[in-house]
Every structure is written in structure tokens, then in C-alpha cells.
Amino acid sequence: MSLLDGWWDDFFFGLLTVLQVFAVALAIAVALGLLGASAKLSNSRLLRALAQVYTVVFRGAPELLVLLLFYFGMALTLTWFVQLFDPSVKFIDLPPFWAGSIAIGLIVGAYMTETFRGAFLGVDRGHIEAARALSLNPYQVFWYVRVPQMWRLALPNFGNHMLSIMKDTALISIIGLEEILFVAKMANSVVHRPFLLYVTVAMIYLAMTTVITLVVGQLEVRANRHLRGTR
Questions:
Q1: Class for domain 2-230, per CATH?
Q2: Cβ contact 97:177 at 8 Å
Q3: I need a surface site. Which of 21, 31, 51, 153 has the fewest CB within 10 A?
Q4: pTM of this prediction?
């Protein structure tokens, strides 16, 4: 491992970048998943159609292709929009961090939409009717009755989506974000030990996904603790 001396700081900061991308993409995916699931279960035909288009497009397109299209497409769109107000602007480069985080959030959010939709459908209708009978408004019914029960049902698949987000962060190196895979590529151009470097990256990702798996396992135990006495 002495070959990596001088690169550990770069790997550390690359890891911090991965964690930041993971946090932003997870927040976006959860928000889009809840919005998409709510739209698919709404009475509005337009909202259901929009949510269906969203899930079909982002679940059907290759993730790397979505990332590239979003990165270059958003840069062109931003440039066009700014030029409407300032023609002197030549080109606006979208930061790889935000392009990658948003793209991953959009992709995984499409999968979360279906996970949350199925979990919402699994909530006991009797509990919802009881909440309405207690004069809870729709907002209170959603957040205090439906979401807590949906969360318990969605947790197993939600953990898989978290793992997908973590692994997808490796894709962002292709658009120039200096995360751990990007650092490994740079280090390889100097030390010429690709196997050692990529195994190091693999071990880092394995450590992070193991932590996620353990955390989700504890969340499942906590979410299902009220069921222990009924078994």
C-alpha cells in the first residue's frame, strides 16, 4: 500500500464528495418518490399521466445515458436561457456535482415512486377512515397516518434504492467530478497499478454499502417493533 502514499488525502476528499452526492441525490429521490406516488394515486388524470411518463422514461433509459444527457442538456438550456437576458454570455457550464446529484435523484426517484405507491396501497383503509372520523384534515391524515405506515412497508425496497444511489455515484466520474473513482484514475496514471487502485475503491464502496445495509436493518427493526407482541 506504500504505492498509494500521497494519494490518501485525495481519496478522503473524494469520499466526502461521494457522501455529499449521496445525501443530495437521496433527498431529491425521496421528494420525487413521494410526489410521484401521490400523483399516481391522485384523482387527476393529468397528474397520473405525468407521473407515468416520468417513471417510464427514467426507469427505461440507461443511467449513464441519463447522466450525460442531463449534464450536457442542462448546460445548453441554461446557456440559452441566460443569453435571453445577456447575449454576451457564451456558455454556462453546469457543475458536475449538481448535474450528477440531480440526475441520480431523478433516476432513483422514479423507482422510489413505484415503491412508495405500492406501500401507500398497503396501508389499511380502516385506519385512514378512522383518522377522518376523528376530524383530521387531509394533511394530517397523510403525514400522521399514511406516511408512518407506508414507511414500514417501503423500508426493504427503500434500502435497495439507497444502495443504488451510493453505487451510482461512481458514474459521475465520467463528467469530471473528483470522487474516489476519479482519484483512482488519476493515481493510476502515476503509479500504474490499476488493480490495486480499483480494489481500494471497491473496498471503500463495500464499506459504505455495508453501513447503509446495517442502518436500514436497524430502521426495519424499529419500524416493526410494535408487531413483536402479535406474533
A1: mainly alpha
A2: yes
A3: 31
A4: 0.88
